[in-house]
Amino acid sequence: MPKVLISDKMDPKAAQIFRERGVEVDEITGKTPDELKAIIGQYDGLAIRSSTKVTKDILAHATNLKVVGRAGIGVDNVDIPAASAQGVVVMNTPFGNSITTAEHAIALMFALARQLPEADASTQGGKWEKNRFMGVELTSKTLGLIGAGNIGSIVADRALGLKMKVVAYDPFLTPERALEMGVEKVTLDDLLARADFITLHTPLTEQTRNILSAENLAKTKKGVRIINCARGGLIDEAALKQGLDSGHIGGAALDVFVTEPAKESPLFGTPNFISTPHLGASTNEAQVNVAIQVAEQMADYLVTGGITNALNVPSLSAEEAPKLKPYMALAEKLGSLVGQLAHGGIARISVHSEGAAAELNQKPIVSAVLAGFLRVHSDTVNMVNAPFLAKDKGIEVREVRTEREGDYHTLVRVSVKTSDGERSVVGTLFGNEAPRLVELFGIKVEADLDGPMLYVVNEDAPGFIGRLGTTLGEAGVNIATFHLGRRSAGGEAVVLLSLDEVVSAELLATVKALPGVKTAMGLKF
Ligand SMILES: NC(=O)c1ccc[n+]([C@@H]2O[C@H](COP(=O)([O-])OP(=O)(O)OC[C@H]3O[C@@H](n4cnc5c(N)ncnc54)[C@H](O)[C@@H]3O)[C@@H](O)[C@H]2O)c1
Ligand SMILES: O=C(O)CC[C@@H](O)C(=O)O
Fold first, then answer.
1. Which of 100, 104, 181, 305 meets the CB 3.0–4.6 Å disulfide criterion with 286?
2. ipTM surpassing 0.95, yes or no?
3. Is 20 designated active site?
4. Of 278, 352, 375, 413, which one is the catalytic site residue?
5. How remote is the CA of residue 8 from the centroid of ligand 2, in Å?
6. What's the pTM value of the predicted model, to 2 decimals?
7. Which secondary-structure segment (H or E) carries 278?
8. For residue 4, what are the CA distances in angstroms to 26, 274, 302, 303, 309?
9. Domains annotated on the chain, with CATH
């Protein structure tokens, strides 16, 4: 039974779903990195929010880990390249808390417009400062949206409902989508010059870090009010403080900080500054949503192999998984076969699906070919890290599909281009289930690729098969199945034998010395 650790505070629904889906679960929160390292080795899955930092060091101790699930959106607390390199799937729940976070941004916009926190503190402090708190209306004001994805577009929708004008800066926003959202797509400079309120909804990347830098803050309208419910680091906090102190910035509300938890900050106590402790996603509804979603996604992966919302591997629905499973087994065996037989630098691997195979999601099939191919040289390769490793090795990967059926109703052809030229192996599924090799380097041969095997290329001549059988028999090696193929009568022939044990180096040398043998190799599946 797979075992999952929930290491951050999460709605109890998550643990309930894991148990219902046959996944054992421990909830142990608040561990230090060293404490986490000591226990992480026993888990197949790790469910987190933002407190647990899944570093390379933690991953190195997570020897059984298959999946990290983030109950939320941002995965900046997970070292995704390290997880990918280790073959660990990283998933998030991209929509579960979007409405809640958008509402928090709108709440902070209202709070800034009417100075609600200061007015509350003053009133509860026994002062009745009716003349001190003069607000601004939102109606007809311009809201500048930086980042118009899931959350940004909900914020835009709510702001339009408040009769604001919304201008958006997002390099990936298409004019059609902007039209659909009812916003005006603008450049960043235009947004800075026009917005009365600015709200940030981008991830923190090298392009967005300090997107509101001192230079850009200086381009804003005097009195601008700024909201950040996305990620700390999008605003230069020192420049923000200066802008608030000088009065150029009329107010700022931060839910997120460069350093979290933000227990101290030069911004604290600044007039017109509001802060919340990363509460964007903190509503009952959002926390139930993300807990259910993360547990379902992780359980799907651990129990059925279905992949949803993964950031480092193509999605594979729980419905698709059983259909693709035999293809992935076939693809892996073909990849392994070419990996064992190919020599020289590999320039390209092409995966060509034909007939029924071409109708399926190709990404998992290609990943399985690469995993089988690369696993020949490393035990730690799996479907998650194989595409990254292939890229690292400079191997070009091609995917081709032909829906028309050929001799077989379904076929997968794996071709490898090396310095010696391009060679292919081809396989099909018998009864839609059993992987079977049907062609090897242009020679028709039918074989199951299973267990230890012996591969021999010889000159087709009478008596050879008998001599080979005798040689193996004399060495006490039992032949399970015998598969033959040849290019032409008297030409090059291929023998593939399934054996009950791995051929020893000594026996291989004897086979190679048989008259007519061109190549002999032990294979393993
Ligand atoms: N405060 C919280 O508790 C909380 C909760 C949920 C999400 N978040 C954060 O909110 C942010 C947005 O989440 P989302 O679900 O809307 O993400 P999303 O991926 O749907 O949208 C992000 C948008 O940013 C845009 N973008 C990327 N680079 C940009 C750039 N250089 N300039 C302008 N736009 C750029 C993208 O094109 C995309 O449209 C994320 O950082 C997420 O982690 C915070
Ligand atoms: O888990 C949280 O409370 C914060 C989540 C939020 O930052 C996110 O990126 O989804």
1. 100
2. yes
3. no
4. 278
5. 11
6. 0.78
7. none
8. 6, 38, 9, 12, 18
9. 3-96+285-304 (3.40.50.720), 98-275 (3.40.50.720), 319-447 (3.30.1330.90), 450-525 (3.30.70.260)
